[in-house]
Amino acid sequence: MTADRNAGKSMDSVFPHLITQKDLPVLVSTSDADFSDVDAVFCCLPHGTTQEIIKGLPKGLKIVDLSADFRLRNVSEYEEWYGQPHRAPDLQEEAVYGLTEILREEIKNAHLVANPGCYPTSIQLPLVPLIKANLIEHKNIIVDAKSGVSGAGRGAKVANLYTELTEGIMSYGVTRHRHVPEIEQGLSDAAHSKVTISFTPHLMPMTRGMQSTIYVEMASGVTTDNLYQQLKVSYQDEEFVRLLEKGAVPRTHDVRGSNYCYINVFPDRIPGRAIIISVIDNLVKGASGQALQNLNLMMGFPENTGLGYLPLFP
Ligand SMILES: NC(=O)C1=CN([C@@H]2O[C@H](COP(=O)(O)OP(=O)(O)OC[C@H]3O[C@@H](n4cnc5c(N)ncnc54)[C@H](OP(=O)(O)O)[C@@H]3O)[C@@H](O)[C@H]2O)C=CC1
Ligand SMILES: CC(=O)N[C@@H](CCC(=O)OP(=O)(O)O)C(=O)O
Q: E strands within the chain?
């Protein structure tokens, strides 16, 4: 367990909920960490930091990177959206994008996995199978998404103070959120042509949880039943992605604290259009849960190892 400002402190002083756990290591700075006995690493560092730090790690380690550092295949796109040069373009070529249910076979053989962002996870899981099956148009995809505040990390920011957030809702990154190129990369791969989306994220006065409400135009002659059946078939053997019964509305409460993604499809009142709702816990399927799912694949463990928690409802 490494840290920056908290290096040198005990784990339970930084995370008091772990006080009952014995033999937890003291947090050390990354440069002081001993990797000699380590098989695998989760990098949970701010964007830009991982590219520098993993260059110094021993070869042969399996790495799941939770930052955005290796998600965009095109390094100039990374520079454009993250406002800094890519510091490890060679490693970028080896990285595999970690959207587990879609890229499972590639992830099994990877040594560096770029864990997807939370919004891109909640949006690509429903859309990729529909695009691959040519059931929706590649234009006019509109995504309205909402996140709990933990999506912004633990660092102190005025905009994330209780008084700034409570009893309100705030759009941010309007017209230009850094997850847009990541989402478009995945959707374009599925379509074998460039897909663009309109995407607006919102900050909600809740700690964790994420909902993406997605408006799509169906291909000619396609019905919402076709979309529903496709998602049912695509995810019938998946433990963590569930299509709800027809008409049931996915709620963030129902996936809170778990690695599940719940999805459903609804007919729009406007003929030819459909509304898709997808919910995840941004900290679990949107981050650490999916990271563990990926590492399990990379290590040859059962994919659900350590992920068997029920949602924390309410
Ligand atoms: N929160 C979320 O919902 C999601 C987050 N992510 C990604 O996961 C990563 C971690 O996010 P999150 O935990 O929310 O962020 P936080 O800001 O809460 O944590 C960042 C961590 O990185 C450490 N750190 C910062 N700078 C350095 C450095 N130079 N060297 C070593 N350690 C450093 C900090 O240590 P210290 O506290 O000691 O300073 C802290 O433990 C980010 O890349 C984020 O984008 C991905 C998906 C979802
Ligand atoms: C509420 C909030 O601030 N959310 C973060 C996304 C967090 C996440 O999942 O993505 P990354 O791994 O790319 O950081 C944001 O909008 O930047």
A: 2-3, 28-29, 40-43, 62-65, 96-97, 112-114, 141-147, 170-171, 197-203, 210-217, 241-243, 261-267, 273-280
- Using a 10 angstrom Cβ sphere, with 0-12 exposed, 13-18 middle and 19 or more buried, the burial of residue 5 is exposed
Ligand 1 within 6 A of 66 CB?
yes
Please report the pLDDT score of residue 56 as a whole number.
86
d(CA 35, CA 38): 5
What amino acid occupies position 87? R
8 Å CB contact between 250 and 263: yes
CB 222 within 8 A of CB 267: no
Span from the CA of 273 to the centroid of ligand 1 (angstroms)? 39
Nearest partner of 177 among 129, 103, 120, 136, judged by Cα: 120
Please enumerate in sequence order all residues whose Cβ is within 8 A of that of 89, keeping only pairs 6 or more positions apart, or say none.
75
Tell me the per-residue pLDDT of 45-63, one tens digit each, with 9 for 90 and over.
Answer: 999 999 999 988 988 899 9
From 14, 43, 45, 124, give the residue whose CB has the most ligand 1 atoms within 8 Å, as the site to mutate: 45
Domains of the chain: 2-116+286-299 (3.40.50.720), 118-282 (3.30.360.10)
Residue located nearest, by CA, to atom 27 of ligand 1: 4
Measuring CA to CA, which residue among 117, 128, 114 is closest to residue 295? 114
Q: Which pLDDT tens digit goes with each residue over 114-141?
A: 999 999 999 999 999 999 999 999 999 9
274: Cβ contacts below 8 Å, ≥ 6 apart: 136, 215, 216, 218, 224, 227, 265, 266, 267, 268
Q: How far is the CA of 159 from the centre of ligand 2 (A)?
A: 14
Which two three-digit tokens encode residue 222? 């396609």
Please state the ipTM of this predicted complex.
Answer: 0.94
- Looking up tokens 């897909």, which residue turns up? 195
